[in-house]
From TrEMBL:
Gene3D superfamilies: 2.70.98.10, Galactose-binding domain-like, Glycosidases, Immunoglobulins. Keywords: Calcium, Glycosidase, Hydrolase, Signal. This is beta-galactosidase. Residues 188-284 form the Glycoside hydrolase family 2 immunoglobulin-like beta-sandwich domain. Transmembrane segments: none annotated. GO terms for molecular function: beta-galactosidase activity; carbohydrate binding.
Length: 935
C-alpha cells in the first residue's frame, strides 16, 4: 500500500510539474469546419432571424441558414447588416487556480464584443482576420459553470474596417469563423518570441517574458527529435531578452527542401522549469538586391505563384487543416512554389502546412481597395505579426491591395519584423518592385523590358470561366524566365469562389462572373489550365523532340530548380501501342538521372529497345525528390499518315455506282449511299443499311470563300472522283471527293483564308448535338485546348462521353466535352443510333466538337471564346481565349490572330486538308464508359 501511495504521489507531482510549465488550451469551439461545437445563437435579420436556436462554431452563419448573403460589391444599405448573438456555457478546470487565463478568438467577422459571466472582457474588437485575446482570469469561476456571451456584427462600426474588408471583390460573411479557446499560462511565462534563423546558421531571438525568472534555455531539435547543436541560455532581461547563437551546417529551408527544426524555449527560476514553449523554425535568408532580384539562401528566385482565399463552398471562410493540406498539395502538384494571401492573413494551419510542405508565402494585411485608419491598422498589424512572424514560409509582407495601402503603416513592418522581410504594395511600383496587375504582354516598352525595378506582378492572367491562367501563361512565363529583372508572379486565383446558397436549395453561386476565377473548381475540380500550368511551370524543362528514325534516345533538359540537382529526380519512360477500345501493348524502363545543376542544361539518355519504332508513342515521366510527378511528356512516333495507311480500306468486292440528277450526285458503294450537291460539292447525306447518318452539309470553309465550282465526276481505276475545277480568279479553293469500292469516302480540300488575319481556319459540317453520345479519338487529351493554351495534354486514345459542361459553372464536370482538341489522328463519333469514323493523314489537325455555352463575360467582353459555324469542324487553326481583364491578342503572340500572306492563290501554296470517312459502323460498336485513355 505504501509503495502504491508513493507512486501515486510521484505521478501527481509530475503532473503538477508538467501542468505548471506548459501552456494549456481548452477549446470552447471546434477546430475547423470538420470539427465544430454547437453554441446557442440568435440572428437579428435575414434567414431564420428573431429566434434563439443553435449554430456550429466555428462557422459563417450564412452557410448555416442565417442572415443574408452578399457579395462585397453589393452596396445596398440593407444588405449584410445583421448581428449574431452567441451564448455558450463552459467549465474551467479547478487546477487552473493562480494561472493567467486568456480567451482567444482566431477570427471573427467583424466587430466582436465578449462578455464573461455578465462582465465585459474588454473593448470591442474590430477586424475579421486576426487573432485577438482577452485576459479573463478575474472574470471566471474555476470548477464551476461560466457563461460566455458574444455579439458579432457583420459590418463594423469602424468605417475604415468596412472600407478595407467589406467593400471588396469577394463574398462577405459573418460569424465566429475560426476557433475559440481558453489559454492557461503560469504567472511567469514566455509571452512571445521573435526568431530569425539565417542560412549561415546564425540564430537570433527576441524573447518577451512576464513575471520574474532567471534565465531562458534554448535547444533545437530536428524533424526526428534529435538535438541539433548545443543547448544555450541567456539571462532574462527587463522588457526583452535578446540572444544569438551560431549553428554549423543547418539543413536549410526552401520550397524544394522545407527542412524544419523545433526551437524549444524553457524559462528557468531558481533552477526549476517555470514555462516552456516550442516553435517550428527554418534556417533561410531572404535578400532583395536592388535592380536585380529576390534571393533565397543566396539563389535568385523566380516565383511561380497563385493568389489564394481562405474559402470552402459549404463553410465560407471557415476551413480546416485538411483543406489547407489539400490546397497546398494542389499548388505543389501544379509545380508552384509560392502563394499570396489574398487579401488578409490566413488560418494558422495554412501557414504551418506551407512551412512543412514548402511554399513561399506573401502574407497580407487586409485592405482590398480601402484602408484601415492608422490606429486600427496598427493594432491589427501587431495581431498579424504576433501570430505569423515566425513562419519560415513567409518571405514577403504586403500592406493592402490595389490602392488599399495605408502608407502610415509601412514603417511598422520594418521596425517590428526581426527578419526584415521585404514589404510589397501590390499593384504599385514600390520599394524597388514593379507589381502592377494585369499588364498586357507587350507592356514592355519603357517599363518591363526597359525598366529598372524588380518585376513581380502580384496578380496576372486574371482567370474567369476558362479564360486566363493556362491561356497565355506560356508566353508570359517564357518572357519572365528570360528577363533577369523578373522575379516571376502570382496568378489570380486558385479556386472558384462558389458558395453554397442555403437560401436557394443549396445551389452553388459564384455571383455571376465575380467568383469563377479559379484554376480549380470550388471543390478542387481540375480545369484544363491546371495541367497547362503544371507543364509550363515544371522545374524540369524538356525540349521538344521529333521521333524520327534518327532519334537516339536523348533529350535536352534544362534544370529550372533553384536548389535541386536533376540527379535527385527520377526519369521513367514508356512505349505504347495505341488502339481503339483495347488495352495497349507497352514496354517500360528507367533512365539514369543526369547530373544537371540548378539553372544549367544537359542531356538525358534513354536506352530504347531496338523495336521502339513499332510503337505509337513514347512517354517520359519525371518525378521529384519526393516521388511526386512533375509532368508526363508524350511524343508521337507513328504519324497520322501511318495510321491512315493501316486503317483506311479502299478496295472492295462491289463497284462504285454513280447516278446523276440535275442537282446532285448520288453514289453507292458496298452498302453506303452518298449524296453530293452538284453545284457546291457539299455532302448532303450519308446512309448505310441502318439508316441515315446525320453528318452533312460540308465541307463549308471557315474564314474562307466557298467558291468550289464546276464539278465533274469520273472513274479512275474503279474509284469515283468528284472534283471542282481550279480557277485562279473565281474558284481558287478546290474540293475533291473520292469514293472507293469499299464504301470509304476521301475528302481533299485546298483552300486560302479570306483575310490576312483570321481567328480560325478550317472546314465545318453539320451534326445535331442532340444525336451525339460521345467520341473516341486518337490525339491530345483529355482536355480541350485554345490557341494560347496548347500545353498540358497527353497524346493517346481517349474515350469521352458527351456533356454540356461550361467551365466554372455547375456541375463543374471536367474535362468538358465541347471545344477544340489538338493533333487529331482519327475520331469515331458515337451517335445514339449510328456511329461513323473520320481519319486524317495530315499532321496538326484540330478537331472541334460543337460550341460550348458562352458564359457571362464582363462589359468589355474580353474572353472572346469564339467558335466556327457548323457543329463539327476540322481546323488548321483555332481561336485563342482572353482573360477577365485582357482580350486574347494582348496575352502574347499565341493569343494573336493567325496571319496568312498569300496574294497569288497558287495551288501549291494552299492549305491542304485530307480526310477519310467510314460510314459503315453501327450501334454495335458503342462502348460504355467515361473519359479515359484506352491504354
Amino acid at each position: 500500500m505504501k509503495i502504491r501511495f508513493t507512486l501515486f504521489l510521484s505521478l501527481m507531482m509530475m503532473f503538477c510539474f508538467v501542468h505548471a510549465q506548459q501552456s494549456e488550451k481548452l477549446y470552447l469551439s471546434g477546430t475547423g469546419n470538420d470539427n465544430t461545437v454547437n453554441w446557442d445563437f440568435f440572428c437579428t435579420e435575414g434567414m431564420n432571424s428573431g429566434k434563439w436556436t443553435t449554430i456550429p462554431v466555428p462557422s459563417n452563419w450564412e452557410l448555416q441558414g442565417f442572415g443574408k448573403y452578399n457579395y462585397g460589391f453589393n452596396k445596398e444599405a440593407n444588405k449584410g447588416k445583421e448581428k449574431g448573438w452567441y451564448k455558450y456555457k463552459f467549465t474551467v478546470p479547478s487546477n487552473w487556480k493562480n494561472r493567467k487565463i486568456n480567451i482567444v478568438f482566431e477570427g471573427s467577422m467583424t466587430d466582436t464584443e465578449v462578455i464573461i459571466n455578465g462582465k465585459s472582457a474588454g473593448a470591442i474588437h474590430h477586424g475579421s482576420f486576426y487573432v485577438f485575446k482577452y485576459d479573463i482570469s478575474k472574470l471566471l469561476k474555476l470548477g464551476e459553470e461560466n457563461l460566455l456571451e458574444v455579439t458579432v456584427s457583420k459590418h463594423s462600426a469602424n468605417q475604415s474596417v468596412n472600407e478595407a474588408e467589406r467593400k471588396a471583390d469577394f463574398w462577405i460573411f459573418g460569424g465566429i469563423f475560426r476557433p475559440v479557446y481558453l489559454e492557461s499560462l503560469p504567472q511567469t511565462y514566455i509571452e512571445s518570441v521573435q526568431i530569425d534563423a539565417k542560412a549561415n546558421g546564425v540564430f537570433t531571438a527576441n524573447i518577451f517574458t512576464l513575471g520574474q525568472a532567471d534565465k531562458v534555455n534554448i535547444e533545437l531539435r530536428d524533424a526526428n527529435g534529435k538535438q541539433f547543436g548545443s543547448e544555450f541560455s541567456a539571462k532574462i532581461m527587463a522588457g526583452v531578452t535578446k540572444i544569438e547563437q551560431e549553428f554549423k551546417n543547418p539543413a536549410l529551408w526552401s520550397s524544394e527542401f522545407p527542412n524544419l527544426y523545433h526551437a524549444i524555449f524553457t524559462l528557468i527560476k531558481n533552477g526549476k522549469i517555470i514555462h516552456q514553449i516550442s516553435k517550428k523554425i527554418g534556417f533561410r535568408t531572404v535578400e532583395v538586391r536592388e535592380r536585380d532580384g529576390v534571393y533565397v539562401n543566396g539563389v535568385k528566385m523566380k516565383f511561380k505563384g497563385v493568389n489564394r482565399h481562405s474559402f470552402y463552398p459549404s463553410s465560407g471562410r471557415t476551413t480546416s487543416r485538411k483543406i489547407s493540406i489539400a490546397d497546398v498539395s494542389l499548388m505543389k502538384e501544379m509545380n508552384m512554389n509560392a502563394v499570396r494571401m489574398s487579401h488578409y492573413p490566413p488560418d494558422g494551419h495554412f501557414l504551418e502546412v506551407c512551412d512543412s510542405l514548402g511554399l513561399f508565402v506573401m502574407d497580407e494585411l487586409a485592405g482590398w481597395h480601402g484602408t484601415y485608419d492608422t490606429p486600427t491598422g496598427t493594432k491589427l498589424f501587431k495581431e498579424m505579426m504576433a501570430n505569423d512572424e515566425n513562419h519560415p514560409s513567409i518571405i514577403f509582407w504586403a500592406n493592402g491591395n490595389e490602392g488599399g495601402h495605408n502608407r502610415e503603416l509601412d514603417h511598422l513592418f520594418t521596425e517590428n519584423d526581426l527578419q526584415k522581410r521585404p514589404l510589397i504594395h501590390p499593384w504599385e511600383v514600390f520599394n524597388g518592385f514593379e507589381t502592377t496587375h494585369y499588364r498586357e504582354f507587350n507592356y514592355g516598352i519603357g517599363n518591363y523590358d526597359h525598366g529598372h525595378n524588380i518585376l513581380m506582378p502580384t496578380e496576372f492572367l486574371h482567370g474567369m470561366w476558362d479564360g486566363g491562367h493556362g491561356a497565355g501563361i506560356e508566353d508570359y512565363w517564357n518572357a519572365m524566365w528570360n528577363n533577369p529583372l523578373s522575379a516571376g508572379g502570382f496568378l489570380w486565383d486558385f479556386a472558384d469562389q462558389a458558395v453554397v446558397r442555403t437560401d436557394k436549395n443549396d445551389e452553388l453561386d459564384t455571383d455571376g462572373n465575380h467568383g469563377p476565377d479559379g484554376i480549380v473548381g470550388p471543390y478542387h475540380e481540375k480545369e484544363g489550365s491546371f495541367f497547362t500550368i503544371k507543364e509550363v511551370w515544371s522545374p524540369v524543362f524538356v525540349e521538344k523532340r521529333e521521333m524520327t528514325s534518327g532519334f537516339d534516345g536523348s533529350f535536352l533538359l534544362e534544370n529550372r530548380y533553384a536548389f535541386t540537382n536533376l540527379n535527385q529526380c527520377t526519369f521513367d519512360w514508356k512505349l505504347k501501342k495505341l488502339k481503339a477500345g483495347t488495352d495497349a501493348e507497352f514496354k517500360t524502363g528507367k533512365a539514369d538521372a543526369p547530373n544537371i545543376k540548378p539553372f544549367e542544361k544537359g542531356k538525358l539518355q534513354i536506352n530504347l529497345p531496338a523495336d521502339w519504332r513499332s510503337f505509337d508513342a513514347l512517354y517520359l515521366t519525371v518525378k521529384d525528390f519526393y516521388g511526386k510527378e512533375l509532368f508526363t511528356w508524350s511524343f508521337p512516333i507513328a504519324l497520322p499518315k501511318d495510321d491512315a495507311d493501316k486503317m483506311v480500306v479502299k478496295t472492295g468486292s462491289s463497284k462504285v455506282v454513280l447516278k446523276e440528277s440535275a442537282i446532285a450526285y448520288q453514289v453507292s458503294a458496298n452498302g453506303i449511299q452518298l449524296t453530293f450537291d452538284k453545284q457546291t460539292g457539299l455532302l448532303q447525306q450519308a446512309k448505310n443499311s441502318t439508316g441515315v447518318i446525320p453528318f452533312s452539309n460540308g465541307p463549308v470553309l471557315q474564314e474562307g470563300i466557298n467558291n468550289f465550282k464546276n464539278f465533274t465526276a469520273k472513274m479512275v481505276d474503279g474509284n469515283l472522283i468528284i472534283s471542282s475545277t481550279y480557277d485562279k480568279k473565281d474558284g481558287y479553293n478546290t474540293l475533291q471527293w473520292t469514293i472507293y469500292p469499299s464504301g470509304w469516302l476521301k475528302m481533299q480540300v485546298k483552300y486560302f483564308p479570306s483575310a490576312y488575319f483570321t481567328t480560325f481556319v478550317g472546314v465545318n459540317f453539320s451534326y445535331p448535338e442532340t444525336e451525339i453520345k460521345g467520341v473516341e479519338y486518337k490525339g491530345n487529351g483529355p482536355y480541350r485546348v485554345w490557341k494560347n493554351r496548347m500545353k498540358g495534354t497527353e497524346f493517346g486514345v481517349w474515350k469521352k462521353d458527351y456533356n454540356n459542361s461550361a467551365t466554372g459553372e455547375p456541375p463543374w464536370q471536367y474535362p468538358e466535352f465541347k471545344g477544340y482538341y489538338s493533333n487529331m489522328y482519327w475520331c469515331e463519333f458515337i451517335g445514339k443510333s449510328q456511329n461513323f469514323r473520320v481519319i486524317t493523314d495530315r499532321e496538326d489537325i484540330f478537331l472541334r466538337l460543337f460550341t460550348p455555352k458562352k458564359s457571362i463575360d464582363t462589359e468589355y467582353d474580353n474572353m472572346s471564346p469564339t467558335f466556327p459555324n457548323g457543329d463539327i469542324s476540322f481546323m488548321n487553326g483555332i481561336s485563342a481565349i482572353g482573360t477577365k481583364t485582357q482580350k486574347p491578342e494582348t496575352t502574347g503572340p499565341m493569343g494573336m490572330k493567325h496571319v496568312f500572306y498569300d496574294f497569288d492563290k497558287e495551288p501549291s501554296r494552299a492549305l491542304d486538308m485530307t480526310f477519310y470517312f467510314d460510314f459503315s459502323l453501327n450501334s454495335s460498336s458503342l462502348r460504355g464508359g467515361t473519359t479515359k485513355q484506352s491504354p
